[in-house]
Amino acid sequence: MGLTAIVTLVAIPIMISHSGAHAWASIALGQAIGTGCAVLIGFGWGTTGPTQVAMARGLARIHIYTDSLQVRSFLAIPGVVFAVGLAFLFADTYREEAALTAAAFAMNGLLAGWFFTGSARPYSFLLLDTAPRVIGTVAGAIALLLGASLVFFPLLQLVGITLGVVLSTVKVGGWANSHWNRLSRRRVSALLKGQSHGMVIAGVSAAFITVPISIVALVAPAALPAYALADKILRFSTTAFSPVVQFLQGWVPGTDDPAVTRRIRWAFAGGLLLTVTAGTVFTVGLPWFAGVLSSGEIIPAFGLSLAFGLILVLLVMAQVTGLVCLLALERAQNLALFTIIGAAVGIPAVFLGVSFFGAQGAAWALVFAEFVALAPQIVLLGRLLNYRSSGRPPD
């Protein structure tokens, strides 16, 4: 995943020099919308799946994936159509390219990276999840350097992602009948119900990826390039933490119960130290890095940089606290509730922020929303850890 993000970043100056900052901003809008829809297509398996797979054994592991793939395949049809329509509607320029980009990124919801994470198979993750996406992006960038139309960039990305889905399915599911359950309507309903908490968490995450940049594109399109580039660098930075979070998702619950508490404490403390350091570096370095990527065309203001630095800290700590620690303590329902509260506060705040203060208003509204979602998670985690240490139930 980190390699994919690096290649995507390297492609930014190529696209800007090829078609301009506003063309790239439309592509970035499509990427954000597609990523959000990919989370919806994934229906929470990307969030809770690694922990489920880590705790399962043998054929049960394979069935977690193959059952989910059948459900996600049905969800992909309306999900991709919705992504395409939304990108076409919100893009101010280069609408076709934005729509095709959204379709490509929505297909990520069918990939198997979460399964390879939970089953501790990093080489399969690299070869079957990361490599096809990287190859598609590199091929698209080369096409632009050779003078091809901008539309070839998302088109080749779509080809690469589709190849990854096919290869992952063959690798995990194979051709054995025992690996594939014939799903009845009742079984599909049970699977969807079982993923409801993970879906709420994932759905709100999708909203935070898709809605703010879409509102900026709709209400303040002139501010879109600066906001989109800061957001893209933020996503790159959170992606850099993904291997750490994914490792912790398998490591924390993958032991005897008494050791889980100790591992949770280590995971939280280590995550806090890393994220505060990273947030500081991000705030200071964002204007310089954005200028390098855009050849000086886009330089975010300090207020925008500071807001996105704080968002980085809050986002990653929410992943460590919620997806690692609280899920290991089987508190998905609480996590879903806190995530909903953050969204209920955040999305209206983003609309008001961008309406009155432009890109900076949207970013600071997200800071507030992420804090509202994270604070009760930390409080609950502290109470649960005290209970496990003392034997007394939480108040």
Give a concise summary.
The protein has helices spanning 2-19, 21-42, 45-55, 59-90, 95-106, 113-118, 122-145, 152-172, 185-194, 196-219, 224-251, 257-293, 302-328, 332-390. It is built from 14 helices and no strands.
Key features of this structure:
2 domains, mainly alpha, 395 residues, 14 helices, single chain
Helix content: over 70%
- List segments where confidence is low: pLDDT < 50 over at least 5 consecutive residues: none
What is the mean predicted local confidence, pLDDT?
87
N- and C-termini, Cα separation: 40 Å
Strand content: under 5%
Q: Name the helix and strand elements from N-terminus to C-terminus, one letter apiece.
A: HHHHHHHHHHHHHH
Coarse structural class = mainly alpha
**What is the radius of gyration computed over CA atoms, rounded to a whole number of angstroms?**
20 Å
What is the 3D shape? globular
Q: Biggest sheet, in brief?
A: none
* Number of beta-strand segments: 0
Helical segment count? 14
- The total tally of domains equals 2
Question: How does this structure look, described?
Answer:
Helix 1 (2-19) packs antiparallel against helix 2. The protein has two domains: 1-193, no CATH class; 195-395, no CATH class. The protein is built from 14 helices and no strands. The protein starts with a helix and ends in a 5-residue tail after the last helix. It is mostly helical. 84% of the residues lie in helices and 0% in strands. The radius of gyration is 20 Å and the shape is globular.
